[in-house]
Design brief:
Pfam families: F-box-like, HTH_23, Transglut_core2, YccV-like. It comes from Curvularia clavata. By secondary structure, the chain is α+β, with helices and mostly antiparallel strands. Among the domains are: 57 residues; 44 residues, no CATH class; 154 residues, no CATH class; 124 residues, no CATH class; 167 residues, no CATH class; 106 residues, SH3 type barrels (Roll). It has 36 helices and 20 strands. The strands form six sheets. The chain has a five-stranded mixed β-sheet with strand order 7-6-3-8-9. Strands 17-16-15-14-18 form a five-stranded antiparallel β-sheet. A four-stranded antiparallel β-sheet has the order 10-11-12-13. A hairpin with a 4-residue loop joins strand 19 and strand 20. The longest helix is centred in the middle third of the chain and has 28 residues. The termini are far apart. About 1% of the residues have low confidence.
């Protein structure tokens, strides 16, 4: 027998769904020249007439995805199933007379009004059919006229009472009741969108919260000098003794189950109901307050009386106007208790703000309180309830205060001085604070990664450096981490390294701006050397400018009539004033001291010793602020000051109109004296030195800031060269850099950058000469870069490579930078100890003394045999050593900052009682976490490379 089957000519027609329509339209829109509508319809299994109708509907109603809906709307219908609940029932929910639960959640309104809908369905019905939602309710709490009178009387009575002698002797008390339902959920009411929230039917009268088993009760007191503990108490119903219930009957053996059940039912009916305290809201009974809470308040007052040191003669108690406090009548147990304990009470007016910040304290007072909180406390307070959270979130004055007090250094991109001076509403202070807080957190995370692993170290350092001065405070805190920190040496070293990297870029930006032709004040251009070579909270070009401004302000305070004087008198007085402040040049014995070329150090030092160039720069910077036109004059082997009179005036202040552009001028030497220097004396000096007369003008006219920066670079180079020559004459390796300020290597590195950025010009005529001059600085730059500052690779990319963009050096530098980033991104090769390394006797972290040269060093790595190139082996005569090149060789860090490659036979471990020098401790953080006193070695921070050391 054949299986039943559908006849071949039978076709079950189905309604094509939206997906099939979409496929059809897509095919139709991409049809070829030979495709017909019938053919496309047959491929999709639909009739040609259906396809035509679909195309017609799309043309009339637009997007095919909306055809059905728009057709239904055109016919006055709506797609989908009909609503279960009539519209009249839904509308009745908005009427207080028909729905007394308008301020209840959706599910309670549905249950109370017997609406057969879930919470979600009811919410959808209300929003889609009536555009109604649960909105935050608006409340009114008018102060009664009588209470207004009390408040005025209270203010008049106490408005002249002093803080010390009256208010500092008052204990302010209050009780608070915390309920999660009311504290974290604002009451809401059901109404239409756009319906005024203050409309009569939408306005609610604020009432006290009823008693709830979930409520926590607490009380406390505060005084100007003290604050009490936060105490908790139970509901006052605990004081009531419930009546004893009747004894439960026992079943007799003669009773049936039915009879005993009836007897139990009768016994249940005879049980007394639970007693309840009749009170409104959270007002406790006076008896409960007197027995439980008031004795604690009185004890605080009595203990305060016993303290004689404060000198307060009268201590008072101030309660709010709760009925339980006994302030509304003369004879009651609460008042009698206070009288018996000699307690003076201040009657607090009703409906007034009191100790509890949740009881309608004015916003201004809350903001004043919040301004005295640290960020952590402010966050904690904001989580207590939504009102305070909204106040702390929406009050820009609080966040501006935090930005001003919590952060001292800001990156220049914020232009923070202009923001602080602008109107409060012009800046999103909360967002700005969050940005800084995020940067602080991210800086700590990146620094932890830098300290923890060598992989990606350069990338992380530059990621922090991109934050600029926003990361400075965090790095300074890390530089001052406690001595007992697990990784104290590494953390201090790399925090300082990142900070130096940030400072260097700040200085480079100043010089780049000067190179681009911008007007950079001389004190900022020279202050960039301080920023480049030094780190610290007080190191910045803005601080240099502030120090100059303080000198100028001091001058004007001492001589109020200074602005009215002649240029000659101004120039002489300014020179006298600076010498009175200690700017008297420098003795010959310390003339070449490195610190004398750093304007920031000169301004902050006690002696203010400086080279002539710095003395002149300070003079010109102060003169600029007090209205005197003073400019540096780059004389031969010295720097003078040129002081110009205003146009059409002479130096004595007399009006002398002239068509010439030449200004009357005079020379001063602030470095040596306050007297005017004659031009003839300077010309005679030039002639004595053999300078041709044709070149005199270049030495006697004013010099631009760029030339002063370059001249400072040459002075620094000379000082560094003198220091190195002195150390070279000594037979032992010196660590004198530890006592040098600024650091000699940082200072020399700064001069290389300054020469590279500002040295030769970029004019087309001398382009070849410019390239040659810049090439001369590259070897010195790369030498310092590779030895001390490998994390400056980003600075090479941003500022050096563009200078050699079309030169062979640019291509090689670009490859060099790319290789450094690639090496930084991969893990260090692991070097393990095995049978092959048995001749490696010393470990990474061991402190030693070189047998031949006697210098102090620490081992940072090793090779089984000498791994240097053949040229180095020959130059160092390695094969002449007793053990030759086949002995172990060690990479070592020396106390003079040098990195050396030492044969095993020259390693002499130090004794047990020998500690590393301060210089070596400061350098060791690059490779080690800390010094282990018990094991007499450094704790390795390169275990990813040397896991067994």
């Amino acid at each position: 027998m054949d299986r039943p089957s559908t006849p071949e000519n039978f076709c079950v027609l189905k309604v094509p769904d939206t997906e099939e329509r979409a496929h059809f339209f897509d095919h139709y829109d991409r049809r070829g020249k030979g495709d017909t509508l019938r053919g496309i319809a047959e491929q999709h299994g639909i009739h040609r007439n259906t396809a035509s109708k679909w195309l017609k509907d799309r043309k009339e109603f637009g997007d095919e995805r909306r055809v059905r809906k728009r057709k239904a709307e055109k016919q006055g219908n709506k797609l989908g199933r009909p609503f279960k609940v009539p519209l009249e029932t839904i509308e009745s929910l908005l009427d207080d007379s028909q729905n007394p639960y308008r301020d209840a959640p959706y599910f309670l309104q549905a249950r109370a009004n017997q609406i057969p809908l879930s919470e979600r369905a009811l919410r959808y019905n209300l929003s889609s059919r009536l555009d109604a939602h649960l909105y935050v309710a608006s409340y009114s709490k008018d102060i009664l006229p009588a209470n207004k009178v009390y408040r005025i009387q209270y203010g008049e009575e106490h408005k002249n009472k002093p803080l010390y002698g009256y208010w500092d002797g008052v204990w302010f008390t209050d009780e608070e009741h915390f309920n999660p339902r009311t504290s974290f959920q604002k009451p809401r009411i059901l109404r239409r969108r756009g319906d005024p929230r203050t409309k009569g039917s939408n306005l609610r009268t604020r009432s006290e919260m009823g008693k709830d088993s979930r409520t926590v009760h607490m009380y406390a007191a505060v005084n100007w000098y003290y604050k009490s503990a936060l105490n908790f108490y139970n509901d006052d119903s605990e004081m009531l003794t419930p009546p004893k219930p009747p004894r439960k009957p026992r079943k007799s053996k003669y009773q049936t189950e039915k009879q005993y059940a009836e007897e139990i039912k009768e016994w249940e009916a005879k049980k007394p109901p639970p007693l309840q305290v009749v009170s409104t809201g959270h007002h406790m009974t006076q008896e409960y307050y007197t027995e439980t809470i008031l004795p604690y308040y009185c004890k605080l007052v009595q203990e305060s009386r016993a303290v004689d040191t404060l000198g307060i003669t009268t201590w008072r108690l101030q309660e709010d106007n709760d009925p339980s406090h006994g302030t509304k009548s003369q004879n009651n147990i609460a008042r009698d208790y206070k009288t018996a304990n000699w307690i003076d009470v201040i009657i607090h007016p009703p409906q007034s703000p009191d100790l509890n910040p949740q009881e309608d304290l004015p916003t201004e007072i809350l903001e004043a309180i919040f301004l005295n909180l640290d960020p952590q406390s402010l966050v904690s307070v904001s989580q207590t309830n939504r009102l305070i959270k909204r106040l702390t979130t929406d009050a820009p004055i609080i966040w501006r205060h935090l930005c001003k007090t919590q952060f001292k250094t800001w990156d220049s991109r914020h232009n923070i001085a202009a923001k602080f001076a602008a109107p409060l509403s012009d800046v999103d202070w909360r967002k700005l604070y969050k940005t800084r807080h995020t940067i602080d957190r991210r800086t700590r995370e990146l620094l932890n990664r830098i300290v923890a692993t060598q992989q990606g170290r350069i990338r992380c350092i530059n990621d922090i450096a991109d934050y600029g001065y926003d990361a400075k405070e965090t790095l300074l805190r890390e530089c001052a981490c406690p001595d007992d920190a697990e990784d104290v040496l590494a953390r201090r070293y790399y925090a300082n390294a990142v900070l130096e990297r940030i400072h260097r870029e700040v200085a480079i930006k100043v010089w780049t701006s000067l190179h681009d032709g911008n007007d950079v004040p001389i004190e900022r251009a020279l202050g960039a050397y301080d920023v480049f070579a030094r780190v610290g909270e007080e190191v910045d070009v803005d601080i240099v400018a502030d120090d100059i401004s303080q000198l100028a302000n001091g001058l004007l305070e001492k001589y109020p009539a200074f602005p009215d004087w002649s240029p000659r008198d101004k120039a002489s007085t300014l020179a006298h004033y600076l010498r009175e402040q200690g700017f008297n040049g420098v003795p010959d014995t310390s003339y070449r001291a490195l610190r004398n070329s750093f304007i920031g150090l000169v301004l902050r030092s006690a002696a203010h010793e400086s080279l002539p160039l710095i003395s002149v720069a300070i003079y010109c910077a102060v003169a600029r602020r007090v209205g005197l036109d003073a400019r540096p004059c780059g004389f031969l082997f010295h720097v003078y000051t040129l002081v110009y009179a205003p146009k059409n005036y002479d130096l004595n202040g007399k009006y002398k109109p002239t068509s010439s552009n030449e200004l009357d001028y005079m020379y001063l030497d602030p470095f040596r004296s306050t007297s005017e220097v004659r031009r003839g004396d300077l010309q005679r000096t030039l002639r004595d030195m053999g300078v041709p007369s044709s070149e005199h003008r270049s030495f006697l006219t004013d010099t631009n800031t760029r030339e002063m920066v370059l001249r400072t670079a040459r002075n620094i180079m000379n000082s560094v060269q003198m220091i190195r020559e002195t150390e070279a004459g000594m037979r032992t390796v010196q660590a004198s850099w530890i006592n040098s300020s600024p650091d000699m290597d940082n200072a020399f590195y700064a001069t290389i950058w300054a020469m590279l950025l500002l040295g030769p010009g970029d004019d087309t005529a001398n382009l070849g000469h410019t390239t040659i001059r810049r090439r001369q600085y590259l070897p010195y730059l790369l030498e310092h870069f590779q030895m001390h500052y490998p994390w400056d690779v980003t600075l090479l990319s941003r500022y050096v490579i563009p200078m050699f963009y079309n030169q062979p050096e640019g291509h090689r530098l670009l490859q060099f930078v790319q290789n450094m980033h690639q090496v930084d991104a991969i893990r260090k090769p692991v070097i393990t100890r095995s049978e092959r390394t048995r001749n490696v006797a010393f470990k990474v972290g061991q402190l030693f003394q070189h047998k031949r040269y006697g210098y102090e060093g620490v081992i940072t790595g090793w090779d089984v045999v000498c791994d240097a190139n053949e040229d180095w082996i020959q130059n160092m005569r390695v094969d002449s050593l007793p053990n030759g090149r086949n002995q172990a060789f060690y990479h070592v860090l020396v106390c003079d900052k040098s990195v050396r490659y030492v044969a095993a036979e020259n390693i002499q471990p130090v004794g047990k009682d020998v500690r590393p020098s301060e210089a070596l401790l400061k350098l060791a953080g690059r490779h080690f976490k800390r010094w282990d006193e018990s094991n007499q070695c450094f704790v390795s921070n390169v275990r990813d490379e040397y896991p067994h050391d």
